[in-house]
Amino acid sequence: MLSLVQVLLSGVATGCVYGLVALSFVLIYKATETVSFMQGDLLMLGAFAALGLHLYVGLPLLPAAIVAVIAVGMLGAGLERAVLRRALGQPHLVAVLLTFGLGMMMRGGVASVPAAAQEVHRLPFAADTLAIGPLVLAASHLWVTLATVVLAGLLAAFFRYTRTGLALRACSEDARVAALMGVPVARMHTLSWALGAALAACAGLLLAPVTFVHLNMGFIALKAFPAAVLGGLTSLPGALVAGVFLGVVEALAGLALPEGVKDVVPYALLMGALLLFPQGLGARRAGRNGT
Amino acid sequence: MHIPSVIRFVRGLVLAVTAAALPAAAADIVGDEIVVGTVSDLSGPIALLGVPVRDGMLMRFDEANAAGGVHGRRIRLVVEDAGYDPKRAVLAARKLVQRDQAFAFIANMGTPVVMATMPIVLDAGRLHLFPFSPHSATYEPLHPLKFQNFAPYQDYMEAATRHMVRERGYERTCLLYQDDDYGLEVMKGVEKALSGLDRELIERTSYKRGATDLSSQIARLRAARCDFVVLATVVRETVAAMAEARKIGWELDMLVTASGYSAQTHELGGAAVEGLYGVSVLPHPYAEGANGQLAAWIERYRARFNAEPNVWSVMGYTLADLFVRTAEATGPELTVDAFARTLEGMEFSRDYFGSPNYRFTPEDHLGNRHGRLAQIRNGRWELITDYLQ
Amino acid sequence: MSQPIRAGAPTGARVAYTLRSLLPWVLILALAVAMLGADYALGKATLVATYAIAGLGVVIVVGQAGQIALGQAALVALGAYAQAVLVRHGVPAVLALLAGVAAGALGGALASLPARRLGGLYFGMSTLAFALIVEEALVRAEPLTHGSAGMTVAAFSILGWRADTTLAQAAVSLVAFAIAVFGCNRLLRSRHGRAWRAVRDDEVAAAACGIAPAAVKMQAFVVGGALSGLTGALYAHWIGFISPEQFGLVFSFELLMLAFIGGARRLAGAAWGALVIVVIPQAIAILRDLLPGDWARAAGLELVLFGAVIVAVVVLRPSGLAGGGARDGASGQNGA
Questions:
Q1: What is the CATH number of domain A2-116+138-289?
Q2: For the whole model, what pTM was predicted?
Q3: What is the per-residue pLDDT across A70-83, written as a single tens digit (0 to 9) for each?
Q4: Which of A81, B102, C16, C29 maximizes the CB count within 10 A of its CB?
Q5: In what order do the strands lie in the sheet with B127-129?
């Protein structure tokens, strides 16, 4: 029983990272109708940026993390201005390939730094454990969960209470109408890429104490896609919840089901959900899928 | 467009191609340069190995060249990055064979890459030396040009498991393995050791490369009441497995293969990996307490690459060293065949790195089968046995 | 835009047209042989032709039928494994080839089932999930596939003749590619091709004209799957060792990029795209050898350049290299 709870909590922590990446994906998709296959690479870049700032520039950990997140956000905005803008209104495949190519460049760029390519790194977070009665929690898992809740709260507040957040929402609902109402749509697109990139970087920072910082840490994004789709592709809370759900189901499957099932569970779930609830999941599908 | 002229052109082309495509002759050394090729992984899943191995080899070859080369010939290392992708590897191997006229291939990296390129290398009559793959096809069946010096996981993990179980009397041995050829090789070795001792493997559980979280695997092993877990993991998962077990207060012994024997394991794992057993096929070059020669070597490596050497750098350096010494022993008349026959009579005794004896014979092209046990004590690996026979 | 050659055009003109479209390829091959050496160049030609076959499949699924396919490599894997397993059990390679094609087609049919209920990106995601499930299934079907340890595949042989030289391998691949192009060309001109394009351009309108979009999508996937299966079956022989991880997401994306770079709406695009995808890493490797000093040792350089090429092509030539321009090859008649 205890081990069940233990595994469940680990699943929640992993799921939070899935959820955050899915959130960043949905944020971009909702606002710009473009599919980003580089969220995993942005995640990796964020973690490495923080690491570099901490180890080589000498910033303390927290400022390094904040600067890294802002820098990756700005990179997202810059890429939108320079390249990704071209994918607007194009078939999905254009954005898929563009972002995949950009992701490769980021991976290659990081791999060119010998210290990054040769070693797995550790962000010097405390590797403590916390005992609550018989239950033992890894501090890193607690951090991930807490930070996710805080981030989600901040995002919700941003969308609800700020003018910019409202404008962004309007833009996601219907860009044309938003433009007529005087919302600067182009700027909103840039903003959503910046936010999406920054969120991915946050996910990278949170993942760092769990899996360390290394070149392939972005592969976790592959689990975030099913989460994004399960959550409905256009729903921010949906993405987060689906991420946590996937994390938990995966962990439980690893405990209870035969070998190997664990790794397929997210995709099997995705298949099942897609087939069972195509309407429920893709309510806004019609007319918005210009392939 | 004149169709006849096109046809004539095509016919000429076909003839030219046919002539050129006859089996390429073995690259006997003609000029003043020996080209050594390596199809490495500098950007893929095992880039963490690829880069230091390449640097170690570069360093040894540079030293040989600085000392006037091998019988006056310079050695040039040509590195191709296949990123663990056999398609790229096949083309890279053909480039090395044909364009660079590579005399030998050293340390090709990753089982798919090695298996896809080995026939190309052998058909072209080039040496296939010391690939990074646990596949037994790298030394069996005996082939005049195939040589391997990495102890097979199956052999040394069998010896290590047997030693541990016998010495320490574990009752319930379990296995956590990476779900690929590496993990399967280790599983075979562990099972063989246990069946020799009339025991069974109580529980086995796997993870996929790149897995985030091992908590469910550890919970599963705990539920099986294991008292000894063999880890067929790489650095990151080794740390994760130990940390997870310690976190839930499960104190048991674990033994990791040479893939987890790395200074990174204790650098990343800290207190959580204290007491972990590992198998070493080559000691890590710790600067602290190094003998004079080793300390000087570490200094040279740092100066050259601006990075700390690790066990893989030593491995690369050693492989290149075996090559240079064999080439020297072959004499001025260097041919592929002469090199291979010389290597078959070579025995490399233990050096300042603390490496095992590498010994090749005409009947056996596998240079080493043995590893030794080590344990993490006070934040570094301490060797605790000699090479286990 | 090249003059369309209709089915009824005089034979002589068609032959001349075909030859003319082949000319750049012959030149490229000759140049490659002269510059790189025969084995290396033919090794490339083999892979280019083998890739291009699967590329044709992507052109049909993505360019003609307008679906997002993120898991084509899984269909290649099915073909490769069918071939490898059958050949290992003593089935002649040519017969096994048919089974490989059938396995790919069957996989394509399965992968397209969600299209009955899903469209656009959702369906794309389902193909991704399908691919990952297939990969895992291949790992688990250990008695048959040797799981993640992978399996070796013997050389391709027909009636005692073994294709173990690069020349023979290139010839087999080119013949297979030629047959595939011929078949695809006919299909595109047929009622099926028109239905695919109708569904791509406007699904609702197509349905109104009596075309059943789900059935049409499935046809496209079956054809695409069969072509992928053929690629897989040949690939298994040329590479000689297959393991499930080889057919992952990267392979799928390479195929997508291939079709996109070449021009996803044209069959000729598959060949141009395959050329670019196969040659670029090699060209980068050769360039790198020319660069001096430690700078060129940087491990990620090739990834950066490869990524840059993709981005540049997508940004600068969104219709692909073969899109527009008078010289493009075998299928001038289905230009956008």
A1: 1.10.3470
A2: 0.87
A3: 999 999 999 999 99
A4: B102
A5: B74-81, B33-40, B104-106, B127-129, B146-147
